[in-house]
Write a structure and sequence with these properties.
This is Urease accessory protein UreE. Pfam families: UreE_C (PF05194), UreE_N (PF02814). The protein has 153 residues and is mainly beta. The protein has two domains: 70 residues, HSP40/DNAj peptide-binding domain, CATH 2.60.260; 61 residues, UreE, C-terminal domain (Alpha-Beta Plaits, 2-Layer Sandwich), CATH 3.30.70. 14% of the residues lie in helices and 42% in strands. The chain has two helices and ten strands. The protein has a six-stranded mixed sheet with strand order 2-6-5-1-4-3, with no helix packed on it. Strands 8-9-7-10 form a four-stranded antiparallel sheet. A hairpin with a 4-residue loop joins strand 8 and strand 9. The radius of gyration is 18 Å and the shape is elongated. It starts with a strand and ends in a 19-residue tail after the last strand.
Length: 153
């Protein structure tokens, strides 16, 4: 089975030939090693040196140099809005206090659909409307090799 051993970030695809694409939800976009099949039928083994978050628009480099495009699948989410910037910041704090993945935009926040959190948001004066769209949550303070390392040797 052909392997994909490298990840090219969106914007750094440098003209490679895209031969297929994989459509993955948020949970399936954090990988290191797994068998995959593109929507066009190409089967390959994702075999990265380290676990990585595969972002919408990235590409996986196959051993033969060809590329498989990564696309974020639409998911059922809650779009959370508030009547003011301060109210939205309060809602973000309450959501973050529950340690759940969240995508933060300039005037809305998206989280996985959860009726309990929807009621909490509404109880705090916000709106929580179901939407279907790709989910691109924040990576967290330690994502992507930035920030504090947990190695204290």
């Amino acid at each position: 089975m052909i392997r994909a051993t490298r990840l090219l970030r969106a914007g750094h695809l440098n003209g490679g030939e895209i031969v297929d694409r994989v459509v993955l939800d948020h949970g399936d976009r954090h990988r290191r090693r797994t068998a995959m099949r593109g929507v066009g039928g190409i089967a390959f083994l994702l075999d990265l040196p380290d676990a990585a978050v595969l972002n919408d628009g990235d590409a996986l480099v196959l051993e033969n140099g060809r590329l498989v495009w990564v696309e974020a699948a639409p998911e059922r989410l809650l779009e959370i809005r508030a009547p003011s910037e301060h109210a939205l910041r309060r809602l973000i704090w309450h959501i973050g206090n529950r340690h759940i993945p969240a995508e933060i935009g300039p005037d809305a926040v998206w989280i996985a659909h959860d009726h309990v959190l929807a009621e909490m948001v509404r109880g705090l004066g916000g709106t929580a409307e179901p939407v279907d769209r790709p989910f691109r949550p924040e990576g967290g303070a330690y994502a992507g090799g930035h920030g504090h390392s947990h190695s204290h040797d």
